[in-house]
Amino acid sequence: MDEVEVVVAHSERATLRVGDVFLKVDADQARMDVEVEVMSLAPVPTPKVLWRRPPVLALAALEGTTLGRLGGPSTGSSAAWAAAGAAIRKLHEAPLPPLPGRAGQSTAALAAKLDAECELLGTNGLLPADLVTRNRRVAEAALRPWTPAFTHGDLQIAHVFVDGDEVTGIIDWSEAGRGDALYDLATFTLGHEEHLADVLAGYGTDIDLDVIHAWWSLRSLLSVRWLVAHGFDPFAPGCEVDVLRSRA
Q: Could you tell me which residue ranges the Aminoglycoside phosphotransferase domain spans (predicted)?
């Protein structure tokens, strides 16, 4: 019998791998509904749905390997990163899905959330006050009007699979929906700034780099306390706190 591998697990959901099958366990039925619906609409390769028995969704494994992970080295070539950029552009140009996504928060709501999070980070001493202040200033550039696009909403490099220089699939669509395209690009290149030029070469259109940098700061500021509370380490080399230090 195949061993059970815990891919990721926290209080909100868990993903297990058994052989060539991924089992996603999520108590939030609406979030699972989003994942299944959006995968059927996305114009890029996605995992095949094998079966669904709430709260479990079974997906077929994808060919290839991921481009890497936050805090670790990239395993992909420049051409693979460019191919990922082209796939992301194809997604962003697709007809809009019928639901808002994680990347679709209003500017006002996001600013309020950022202000509250920065205040908490300062008062609990989790991060140096000057580091929070400087990154809060950098993050301002992300708080601007944007045109809605079909976004993934959690486009970490660990969610993109490649075989050679070809994208074989993108996983974890539960945060997808209408949103800011630059949020996806920033999430994908977070902690791997050295490949930003490759991604944008594949994406094929001019991008405001200040907004990408702003999203790096904003996403990291909003993530640190959640990650600590759920057993992850944003202070590990190359992870969120290092991203904040690089922006400051």
A: 41-204
For tokens 């202040």, what's the residue?
A: 133
Angstrom distance (rounded) from CA 95 to CA 93:
7
Strand partners, 177: 151
Q: Report d(CA 39, CA 155) in Å as an integer.
A: 14
Which residues does 17 contact at the CB level (< 8 Å), separation at least 6? 4, 5, 7, 23, 61
Is 43 inside any structural domain? no
Residue closest to 162 by CA, chosen among 56, 61, 69, 81: 81
φ/ψ (deg, to 5) at 129? -60, -40
Is 12 contained in some domain? no
CA distance 189 to 155: 9
Q: What's 175's domain CATH number?
A: 3.90.1200.10
Within a domain: 6:
no
Query: Cβ-count burial of 170 within 10 angstroms (0-12 exposed, 13-18 middle, 19+ buried)?
Result: buried
Quote the pLDDT of residue 248. Answer: 67
pLDDT given for residue 224 in this prediction: 97
pLDDT at 96: 95
Q: Where are the alpha helices (DSSP H) in the chain?
A: 29-41, 78-92, 107-123, 129-139, 181-189, 196-203, 209-229, 240-247
Q: Which domain holds residue 178?
A: 62-247
Residue 2 lies in a domain: no
The C-alpha R_g of the chain, in whole angstroms, comes to: 18
* pLDDT profile of the chain (248 residues), mean per 10: 79 88 91 92 96 94 89 87 98 93 87 96 92 96 96 93 94 93 97 95 95 97 94 94 90
